[in-house]
Specification:
7 helices, 192 residues, mainly alpha
């Protein structure tokens, strides 16, 4: 059984080789704590912390958002990133400067200098044909224990539409007698 990953906040204040200056590391640690207090998910904390770290590594300052430098930094990413990724970068920077305003490191409203979010173009939903699904389900060797396990996992994914992390977290008591599967704390922390 695979144990779910637990979130361990990075100890920025301890310092890392090639890391940021002490003031920036303390600001990143404080940002992580504020995100945790505001109820942000583990993944959001990880992503936003990474965005803030990359921005500070590129020359950003904790106490002031330089709009020109930020525009240049975002322009470098705009050529290689999808619109939704760009929105993630902007959201991460906005959350960072809002948290720094709460912590008293900068004046409120620094995040207003950031560009507005752009609506990403709609994506077509891709799916497998039934013949392709049958080929995938027939691939594991059900004569072995590992092959049977893989077949059951693939079939559960196909028939329920669960996410990979939700399937991995299923325990013995989560499969009910009537064929239903109970998902405890799935996406967004919801039970279903």
């Amino acid at each position: 059984m695979v144990k779910p990953r637990t979130y361990r906040p990075v100890d920025y204040a301890a310092g890392a080789e090639g890391g940021l200056g002490t003031a920036n590391e303390q600001a990143l640690a404080q940002f992580d704590r504020l995100l945790g207090c505001s109820g942000r998910s583990v993944g959001t904390r990880r992503v936003f912390g990474g965005v803030a770290r990359r921005w500070l590594d590129a020359g950003g300052a904790v106490g002031h958002l330089d709009a020109v430098a930020c525009s240049r930094w975002l322009a470098v990413h705009r050529g290689t990133c999808a619109p939704s990724t760009m929105n993630g970068l902007i959201k991460g920077l906005r959350a960072f400067y809002r948290s720094m305003a709460i912590a008293g490191h900068c004046a409120p409203g620094e995040d207003l200098k950031l560009p507005i979010l752009r609506r990403p173009p709609p994506r077509l939903v891709r799916h497998y044909a039934l013949e392709q699904i049958a080929d995938i389900l027939a691939e594991p060797d059900v004569g072995t224990w590992i092959g049977m396990r893989d077949h059951v996992l693939l079939r559960t994914l196909f028939e329920t539409g669960l996410r990979c992390g939700e399937v991995v977290a299923i325990g013995c008591g989560d499969v009910l007698d009537d064929g239903m599967v109970y998902v405890h704390r799935g996406k967004g922390g919801r039970d279903r």
